[in-house]
Write a structure and sequence with these properties.
Layout lengths: L7 H4 L8 E6 L3 E6 L5 E5 L1 H28 L6
Antiparallel strand pairs: 1-2, 2-3
Amino acid sequence: MPELPPCPNFTEGRCPQSAVYIAKETDEGFLFVCRTCDCRNFWPKEKAEGSGRYEAALKHRAARAAQERHESLKRTYSR
């Protein structure tokens, strides 16, 4: 069984005991809950992180293409 991440409050000294369990699993990630302090912590899955980076790269590329298109359509003045 994989090791669960510790409770964030426990690592900061605000929770007396780290008793973390997986409360919910979705396609995007895992929801961890501490039984002691009821702290909730969401960890994304690797696939979700990769798809987020891919979407951000696509948006960046589209914005850059729109900027280049705008620059190419500007009138050039010669003197």
